[in-house]
Design a protein that fits this description.
A 3-stranded antiparallel β-sheet has the order 1-2-3, with no helix packed on it. Strands 4-5-6 form a 3-stranded antiparallel β-sheet, with no helix packed on it. It is mainly alpha-helical. The relative contact order is 0.07. The protein is elongated, with a radius of gyration of 32 Å. About 12% of the residues have low confidence. The chain folds into 3 domains: 77 residues, no CATH class; 137 residues; 151 residues, no CATH class. The protein is 54% helix and 10% strand.
Length: 441
């Protein structure tokens, strides 16, 4: 054995041995003259995920009556302490718990947006990015996990996943965000201070523009990523369709034409770049306003605004009750007082139940069919309105409606969206002459 494997210790003491040099071999501590230290113990830990327990193999070293070494291995189950941690211990433990939550969120993302066939590839990309994020000094939270998962999905570019989808699934709780503690071992949660608990399970959804401010910080750490414009074709067409614009195909083509002239090259982690969905939304708002300015549409702007606002109000009212604002709640209470609790009400229970069914939309399939039918009716009504000269007030209402709509869709503050819109229109002005729209800006 080499000299480097020996270490100094207390006097051996076996048979009056004065040696202070020892080495470890097979879990035993042996002096330079071959004496074995009595009571030496070897630990081999095995971690188990469930139960908050730990199994240790304990090797007890004793001697029989002839002086021969006897080794006995015993398994000892040691229950972990559930005492709350603080300081650096809490921070270190919190990152381990956050990593467990990340593994759970990966499964939700794959189920919602992908297929099981890409699970291993996606998980590998996520793990790589996770290592990069945790190497920094910033303390991460669940919002960082969600953005990390989205960024990793963009790196694969196998499925059309957009930030608007993430926002919507957070809102309807298909992606765990404000209710996550039940996904973690109870012992893990009990060990953490409340300040860390709030990072695992925030009291509310991300506030306006919070995701994009966090996105800017996160993307500066992660690998460079270029996303082609073609990846967002579905996003562009879908948004135009949701706005119930009869000339959606024309608007889509004009948007692609403008993008090709601008050549934005979505380099996501560059300092001056913004999230592609925000940039594209600004482009779409510009194209819509321009189409009415140039009178390219075969329908009335006034009629469009009237029908679209009515459709949105009806759709919002039929949303999940948990998402109702105070105005919708008050309307429902008024309806209950006027119809269900009126002393003069002679309608039977079946009728009232049917009315409740219509409000809460208990049958999802029928609800979807009704939505599709209503959408087509509104679309045909908008088409049937003859085109008229658009007034300045109507153009102002259109711009206001678009900013409110896209602000909600992107969960971004209107003022922040206006700043991004100004940047985009400045870029458009550089190619306006080439597109023959200079006089319309």
């Amino acid at each position: 054995m080499s000299q480097a494997q020996w270490f100094r210790g207390p006097i051996c003491g076996v048979d009056n041995c004065r040696s202070r040099l020892f080495k470890n071999q097979d879990g035993l501590t042996i002096c330079q003259y071959g004496h074995v230290m009595e009571g030496a113990i070897e630990f081999n830990d095995e971690d188990f995920e469930s139960g908050g327990t730990q199994t240790r193999r304990v090797t007890n070293v004793t001697f029989n009556e002839r002086g021969h070494v006897i080794r006995r291995e015993n398994k000892v189950i040691i229950k972990e302490s559930n005492e709350r941690l603080f300081g650096e211990d809490a921070k270190s433990y919190y990152l381990k718990v956050l990593q467990k939550l990340l593994k759970v969120e990966i499964k939700y993302f794959v189920d919602l947006f992908m297929s099981d066939s890409v699970y291993s590839d996606y998980e590998l990309v996520v793990k790589t990015n996770w290592i990069l994020l945790t190497s920094g000094t910033t303390l991460l939270d669940i919002l960082d996990l969600i953005l990390l998962l989205y960024y990793s999905a963009l790196q694969l570019q196998l499925y059309p996943i957009y930030m608007t989808d993430i926002i919507e699934f957070l809102r309807i709780a298909k992606i765990p965000y404000i209710k996550t503690l039940h996904l973690l071992p109870k012992l893990d949660v009990e060990k953490l201070p409340s300040s860390f608990i709030n990072r695992l399970q925030p009291p509310s959804l991300p506030y306006k523009s919070q995701m994009y401010k966090r996105w800017d910080k996160l993307t500066k750490i992660l690998p460079k990523l270029n996303v082609p414009i073609s990846f967002y074709f579905l996003y562009i067409f879908r948004i135009y369709s949701e706005l119930i614009l009869p000339n959606t195909p024309d608007l889509f083509i004009n948007t692609i034409r403008l993008l090709n002239k601008l050549d934005p090259k979505f380099k996501i982690n560059k300092v001056k770049s913004t999230l592609p969905e925000i940039y594209l939304s600004c482009i779409m708002m510009f194209i819509i306003v321009l189409s009415f300015k140039m009178n390219d549409n075969d329908y009335s702007l006034y009629g469009y605004l009237q029908e679209f606002n009515k459709y949105e109000s009806m759709k919002d009212f039929n949303n999940d009750v948990l998402n109702w604002d105070n105005d919708k709640i008050n309307k429902f209470i008024d309806w209950v007082l006027d119809v269900m609790l009126s002393k003069d009400n002679k309608e039977d229970v079946t009728t009232m139940e049917r009315r409740l069914h219509n409000i809460f939309q208990l049958d999802n399939v029928e609800h979807s069919q009704r939505d599709d039918n209503e959408y087509m009716k509104v679309l045909e009504t908008i088409r049937s309105n003859e085109r008229k000269e658009n007034t300045k007030e109507e153009m102002r209402q259109l711009a206001s409606m678009l900013f409110v709509r896209f602000s909600k869709l992107l969960n971004i503050d209107v003022k922040d969206l206006a700043k991004e819109y100004k940047k985009v229109t400045n870029d458009i002005k550089k190619v306006a002459k080439e597109l023959e729209i200079n006089d319309k800006l």
